Structure formats: C-alpha cells, structure tokens
Amino acid sequence: MNDLLWIIPAAPLAGFTALALAGRRLPHAAAATVGVGSVGVSAILSFLIGGLFLLYPPQDHAVIQSLWTWMNVAGFAPAVAFRLDLLSLLMILVITGVGFLIHLYSAEYMRGDEAFSRFFAYMNLFVSMMLILVLADNLALLYLGWEGVGLCSYLLIGFWSDDPANGAAARKAFIVTRVGDTAMAIGLFLLFTQLGTLDIQTMMQRATQQWPAGSGLAVAAAALLLIGALGKSAQLPLQTWLPDAMAGPTPVSALIHAATMVTAGVYLIARTNVLFTLAPVVQSLVAIIGSATLLLAGCSALVQTDIKRVLAYSTISQIGYMFLALGIGAWQAAMFHFMTHAFFKALLFLGAGAVIISLHHEQNMLKMGGLRRQLPVTFWTFLIGACSLSALPFVTAGYYSKDMILHEAWTSGPAGLLPWMAGVAGAFLTGLYCFRMVFIVWFGEAKTGATRAPGWAIHIPLVLLAILSIAGGFIKIPAMLGQVGSDGSVGPVGSEWIFQITALGFPLLGIGLAYTLYMRPRRLAQTRLQRPILDGIRRWWFVGWGFDWLYDRLFVMPFLRIARANRDDAADLIYQGIARLNLALHRALRATQSGQVRWYAAGIALGAAIILGIVVVT
Amino acid sequence: MTGIPPEHAILLAAILFLLGLTGVLVRRNVIFILMSIEVMINAAGLAFIVAGAAWGQPDGQVMFIFILSMAAAEVSVGLALVLRMYHCFKTLDADAASKMRG
C-alpha cells in the first residue's frame, strides 16, 4: 500500500494536466468531475495509507518512497523522494480531506463561471504542489512545492482578472511572499554548503553534530528559514498580503489562505525543529513574533466590515498562535492547532462564501443582518465554526487546541509568561471579533433578502466540517499524530486553577462583550464608540495598523523614485553611445555620396594620387 | 629620331594629363568632360610611346594601338550616354544628374 504513496500528489497533478490541456472543450460537469475526483482519489488513498500507517506502524515511524534522482551535479543530488511520517501524515490528511470538501463546494460555488475548468486546473495544481511540499524528503523538493503553491496562490487571487484591483492584490501577495522565499532560498544555500546535504533527516543529524547550540551558523540558518516561514504564513512583518488576498474566489481563500498554504510556514518550522532548538534566540523570536502578530491581527479583525477580511485577519491571528506554540517548543500543540484551525476556518470561509453568493457577491457585513432564518444550515454550521474559533470551552475543537498551546506556555516557565498573556488576550479578542461578526451577519433585523439557496454540494462540506470542528478536539490525536520530536511532559503546576479559569473565562468574556455591544441595544456600538479618539483608533486598526502605508513610504515609493530617476537606463548609455557613433559616421560618409560625377572623379584622382604617392615614397 | 629627351616628353604627357584632369573636374558640360577624358587618354598614350622609344621596344606602340581602340569604344558609349542624358534632363549639365545623392 505504501508503494502507492506517489499517487497522492500525482492524482491532482494528472487532474491539472487533463484540465489544462482539454479544459476548454470539456463541459462543466466533466471538468468538475475531473477536478473534484482527482482530489477525492488522493483523499481516499491518504486515509487508507494513513489508517494502515497508524495500525501497523513501520520501523522508525517513517515510510520513504524514493522515485528517482532529480539531478546530480557535483555532489548535489536531491532525490524526488516522499517521506511519510506522523507529521506529514497529519498534513496530507488535512490537505486532501479539507481540500476535497472545498473542491466539492467549489463545484457549486463556481458554477456558471466562464473559466470554470481553469479554476479547477489551478486548484488541482495547488493541491498537488502542497502535497509535494509536505511529503518532500529533502528541502529542494520542499522548495519546489513551496514555490508551486506560491504560484497557484498568485494565479487564484487574480483569478477574476477583469478587475485590475484583483491583479494588484495577486501581485502584492506574490511580491511580499517573494521576500520570504528569497531568504529561504539563501537559507537552503547556507545549509547545503555547510552540511553538504539537503536531505532533511541527514541534515538535522549533521546539524546537531557539527553545530553547538547557539552557534552563529545555526542562528543564521534558522533565521533565514524563519523569514521564509513568515512570508508564507503572513506573520509580522510580512503579513500585509493576506487581507488583500481575499480578492480571490472564496473557496480559494478557504483552501489556500486559511487551511493549507498559509500554514506551510508552521510546517517548515516544525519539520526543521532541530535547527530551531539549536538556535534558541531565533526560537524565542518565533514566540515573540507569534504573540505580536496574534494581538495586532486580532485588533484589526475587530473593526473590519468586509466579512472575508475579518476572517483573513483572524487567520493571521490564529497562525500567530501556532508560531507562539512553535516558539515555546510545543511542536505538537502547534500542529494540533493547525489541524483544528484548518477545520473551523475552512468552515467559516465556506459559510461566508455561501452567504456571499446568496446575496449576489455582497461582502459588506453592515449590509447583512438577520440571515439566520433564510439560510438555516449555513447559520448553524457557521455558528459552530465561530464557537470553535473563539474556543468555547469543552465542546469545540478550537478550545482543546488553544488550551493545549496556552497550557504549554503556562508550564514552560518564565519564558512562556509573555506569550501566555498574549495568548489569553488574543483569546478574548477572538471571542469578541468572532461573535461581532456572528451577531451582525446572522442576527438583528433583516436588511437584504437572500435570493439563492445553497445546494447540497455546499451543504455537505459545511456539515462535515462542522462535525470535524466539534469532534476534531475529542479524538485528541496530537499525542500520536503530528509528532515531531521528543517532548517532556510537564507535571501539574500548583497554580493550575488560575490557568484554567483564565483559559475558560477570557473567550467567554469576549463573547459576552460582543453580545452587549452588538446584540443588546444595537445603538450602543454606534453611539458610545463614536468618539473621535476611538474613531481614529478604529481607522488605524481598519487599515491593519498602517503597515501598508509604512511599506509604501519605506519601500515602494523610494523604489519608484529610483526607477523614475533611472528611466533612461544608465546601463543603456553604452549601447546608445555605440548607436550614436555609428549614426555620426553614417552622416559623414553620406556627405561623400553627393551624386555629382565630378566629385567622384575628383575622389578617384585624389585616391590615385595618394596611392601613387605611397608607392613612390616607400 | 633623336633630339627630344624622354624627360621632356614625359613632362609634356604629365602636363597634358593634368590639363585633361582639370577639365574633367572643372567643366560642367558633359561634352567637354568627354573631350577632357580624351585628352587624358592621349596623354597616357603619349607616355607609352615615349617609354617605348626610350627603351627601343615596340610594346609602347602596341599599347597605344590598344588605347586608341579603347578610346574609340569609349567615345561611342559616352556619346550614346550623352544623348540619353540630354533626352532625360534636357540639359548637358553634369551636375543636374545628381539623383543618386545619398
């Protein structure tokens, strides 16, 4: 069975090839069958292989399937090899499972779109690249997947290219993540030159042997990989692209910009965790960045009016939690939160998408309201997703994963105190912005009527993801799945009850505040919060703490100024000089071509005289 | 046939040649240009004769016969061209035919 591992990424790739070559001629139904079916094959295979893997654990808890040597140049010989272990198993289960549900949903969501088959071609390519990324046995192959998903993200954000704003958002996403990707590529060069291999397991072994903890090279390598992860996972300071990435179709936001691709950075750090353990400075930096990001993004999510932007900022914030967990060494907690987040955030995005198409592509929450009677299935599933996101105690998956992160932070001594405080404050913010969204969209008086009721292809993914958002926490698989390293269990701490009360209380507090502000008297939010200072803060948070403005001033405008100053390219001067010289020579020679016979005769006579002179003299 | 030193005869040929060349360069009328060319050709012929006489060899006279026949051919072609030119431009001014200017 394990020999079939290669089919998991190959099936969506085949789907992409078929759709890319024949997509235009296929009817929509056939394109949907190919697109959804190929991911379905991967999903079924993943579950079969995963089940066997868990029932009969192989030696070393890893299966490696080596297909062929990619290239062999002067000792650099990365293989196209897939490695299945507990970490990549968790990833492929989530990618293919959630990916399949989102593909099914897209079949209805994108119905009637002109470029229907192109959409599924891109989506299939994305799934394939993402699977290559997580299954890759060496960092070169991982980088192939890493760039592949970046390309698909670009293509899908700008999918509706009629609107120039979508193209701009796509370019922004591509360029900002490129900053991180470049750093990561340099990191790979450094690792290869120092350790002589890109094979992850060998590399980690050599790193522990060659580099003492905290050595400069280990810090540099870990920092470069971290920058790559920051770009891909939209963390501070490279977070600005994700809110704009919402220009893409909603299933894209659910699959790429919530469930899978943006967590690639988390995966990368978990995968190379040995490096980060060797560089404690960088690891604590991961925790700090995660804490800062989750708070900043949480505040921005509070004041957004576009339903998808709320979810985008929420995604940044939740990935901040994962980085926080990675930073304090809680690898399993990070992967557990990745899993539950994939469930409930995909659910929320798909629910938002159902609302958006029911209202003819209306995304402004303030124009929604009282939709719970019109779209009951969507409402209940969305509510479950929101509860899971805001970590409603005991019943939701989000509670267990967030609780695990906070618990790890609480028990990891003084270093974990600040991250813990940020996490608790973030939990409060999450409850607040999440239920602000719920109350505004689903409760209150109806403002617009839903015109188009979603069909079964939308309802089935919603219901299944809702079930997973609840049950994903009960299985408590992190103990077994997503295992990335040794983990010393920590005994109960005396002040355990303080921790429990805060962990339980803060999300509820946030939800309660959301209720008083946005539910009770509807005017409270509109009158009390209208003071100038508050309004200024609101606007500041609305634009994402002004990072776009700052980057515009710091990078974009100076660059444009330089480009403008250098409009007549300095390097071109040489070539223009050659052209000018030739032109001048041409003009001079043209003057001799006077067309008058007598001048020619004079020329001939002069030439003859000169030649004769030369002959005589010499 | 003694008495004329070859230097003098060569000098005469050179003077004739330069006169002809000056005529070619200075004259604008095509007929006169042709006549000046004849003068130059004959100057060259004279130089051959003188050289042949100086060395006592017949080659100089043979060359002169060649030059003479070539000059006849040249004149016939040249006059034909002059006729065509007059037909096209209604003038014999050589500078008028300057359409080939670059």
Class from helix and strand fractions of chain B:
mainly alpha
Find the structural class of chain A using helix and strand composition. Answer: mainly alpha
Number of helices of chain A: 25
Strand tally of chain A, please?
Answer: 2
> Averaged pLDDT of chain A, please?
84
* Proportion of residues in helical segments of chain B: over 70%
Radius of gyration of chain B: 17 Å
Radius of gyration of chain A over alpha carbons?
A: 30 Å
Which strand order does the major sheet of chain A show?
1-2
Query: How would you sum up the major sheet of chain B?
Result: none
* Percent of residues in beta strands of chain B: under 5%
Largest sheet of chain A: 2 strands, antiparallel
Could you tell me the strand content of chain A as a percent range? Answer: under 5%
Please give the number of β-strands of chain B.
0
- Spans where pLDDT lies below 50 across 5 or more residues of chain A: 477-494
List the secondary-structure elements of chain A in sequence, H or E: HHEEHHHHHHHHHHHHHHHHHHHHHHH
Overall geometry of chain A comes to globular
**Multimer state:** heterodimer
Number of helices of chain B: 3
List the defining traits of the structure above:
heterodimer; A: about 625 residues; mainly alpha; two-stranded antiparallel ribbon; globular; B: about 100 residues; 3 helices; elongated
Question: Would you write up a description of this structure?
Answer:
The complex is a heterodimer of chains A (618) and B (102). In chain A, α3 packs antiparallel against α10. In chain A, strands 1-2 form a two-stranded antiparallel ribbon. Chain A has helices at residues 7-22, 28-55, 86-109, 116-135, 139-157, 164-195, 200-210, 216-232, 241-244, 250-259, 264-271, 273-278, 280-303, 307-327, 331-358, 376-389, 397-411, 417-442, 456-471, 496-518, 523-527, 532-542, 547-565, 572-592, 597-617, and strands at 62-69, 79-85. Chain A is globular, with a radius of gyration of 30 Å. Chain A contains 25 helices and two strands. The longest helix of chain A has 32 residues, at 164-195. By secondary structure, chain A is mainly α. Chain B is mainly α and 102 residues long. Helix content of chain B is 76%, strand content 0%. Chain B has helices at 6-26, 30-55, 59-89. The termini of chain B are far apart. Chains A and B meet through α25 of A and α1 of B.
